[in-house]
Amino acid sequence: MREFGYQRAHDVAAAVALLGTAPDARLLGGGTNLVDLMKAGVERPGLLVDVRDLPLDEIRATTDGGLRIGATVSNSDLAAHPAVRRHYPALTQALLAGASGQLRNMATVAGNLLQRTRCGYFADLAKPCNKRAPGTGCPAVTGDHRNHAILGASAHCVATHPSDMAVALAAFDAVVTYETADGPGALPLDAFYLPVGDTPHIETALPAGAVITGVTLPPVPAAAHSRYRKVRERASYAFAIGSVAAALDVRDGVVRDVRLAFGAVASRPWRARAAERALIGGPADADAFAAAADAELAAAEPLPENRYKVTLTRNLVVTELARLAEEATR
Ligand SMILES: Cc1cc2nc3c(=O)[nH]c(=O)nc-3n(C[C@H](O)[C@H](O)[C@H](O)COP(=O)(O)OP(=O)(O)OC[C@H]3O[C@@H](n4cnc5c(N)ncnc54)[C@H](O)[C@@H]3O)c2cc1C
Ligand code: SF4
Predict the structure, then answer these.
(1) Is there an atom of ligand 1 within 6 Å of 232 CB?
(2) d(CA 131, CA 137)
(3) Ligand nearest to the CA of 40
């Protein structure tokens, strides 16, 4: 590992200022992803700006009935918060499905959003990778892509985003807020993660030098009836090979509101808007759930070794919506 500087910021303005002092400065949250990438030589910062002392560790109700979540809130504290458990249970379930207890104690909300892909080629300096070294190629397209994207990918990169938390946040229209030297800004999660295109190394619309200050969740009544289901290759301590965050509001057998987002299928959490449109105002039954999943997955372009994800995601949609519909009748 090469030498680097370390500074601890105590307010957001200081963090923004320190970040602006060097182009190779990076913010340090829990360090559970960044430090691993530094050890692998993928990240080579000259300065680490530690954000864990920033006054951004609160979760509070907003006046409109939503939630404001500070950027340095740990994944464990967010999962355990009573308002999250009650009003957005899929978010708690998504967080608890990720990593391990020790990692969740360290990991922050902002760090979780910005964690990098687990594509094996990305972390292997001996291999080409357009995301790590633009213009070098993407060996995953013809190589190991069992756990790669089936939606929204490009020939330049087929990596998936690894976060569970972000999938639930996408379903509930979360907005990411940040601070820069030019002032504050906000990005809905849909606009926060950029399409892959021919620039897979540019993953978010966050301006250069921005410090994420938190995430705002609007009030979403349907989210009180929500679930997160994750499929992985072993029972714990593994990233998803498929996941779904689902929320359903059913009255008299008719879908009044539905939220759906998929994980492990794209370079970002995949909000399933075509499926949502297909369901609203229609019956809450297995045929409708399957047709909605098919409407979304019609856009899938699987590679030879990851076709299973189309079926897996379809089955997750049908199963989780059926569970929510059944719960609504109790
Ligand atoms: C063994 C293992 C298993 C895991 N399993 C899962 C899993 O199943 N599901 C899952 O979702 N995750 C999993 N993770 C990933 C884990 O959730 C992330 O590593 C963690 O959420 C990152 O948060 P952090 O605070 O440690 O980020 P850091 O590593 O500190 O930072 C990550 C990135 O965010 C940037 N950053 C941090 N704070 C800010 C800020 N305020 N503003 C702007 N940029 C910022 C950093 O500069 C860096 O680029 C796993 C990790 C490990 C090591
Ligand atoms: S899928 Fe993306 S991250 Fe993986 S090798 Fe290809 S360019 Fe790199």
Answers:
(1) no
(2) 9
(3) 1
